[in-house]
Write a structure and sequence with these properties.
The chain is mostly helical. It has helices spanning about 5-40, 45-80, 85-120.
Length: about 120
């Protein structure tokens, strides 16, 4: 058993701590190199991909909202101009378009399932 009053204890402890600090510095340097390599490779990190996907979703939603507002404005303008039959036709077209957009993914999935059942892989 070592005695803490001996000078060798202090020197050994000091060397052990220096080694630990040196190991930590090496790990930090490796981490820094890795982070710099990630910085150079834009578009590869998962965070960057997630940000891009979220931005694309936001832009698509905004575009859909703008087209809906424009079609609603056209319909209201037709109603104001006493062109009810044209307004009704535009409403029917808009409702058909919205219904189609809602069920389009199901159509695609059903079509791919039918193709797989009929023709196989």
């Amino acid at each position: 058993m070592t005695d803490i009053r001996e000078p060798s204890f202090y020197f050994e402890e000091r060397n052990r701590r220096r080694k630990q600090i040196h190991d930590i510095k090496i790990r930090l340097d490796e981490l820094l190199v890795h982070l710099q390599s990630l910085r150079e490779k834009k578009g590869v990190t998962p965070a960057y991909k997630t940000i891009v996907e979220n931005e694309l979703k936001r832009v698509k939603k905004k575009r859909i909202d703008q087209s809906r507002k424009m079609s609603a404005k056209v319909i209201v303008d037709k109603i104001i101009d006493d062109e009810e039959s044209d307004a009704v036709d535009l409403m029917k077209e808009e409702l058909d378009l919205r219904a189609f957009k809602k069920i389009e993914p199901d159509f695609i999935q059903g079509g791919s399932q039918m193709q797989e059942h009929i023709f196989g892989n």
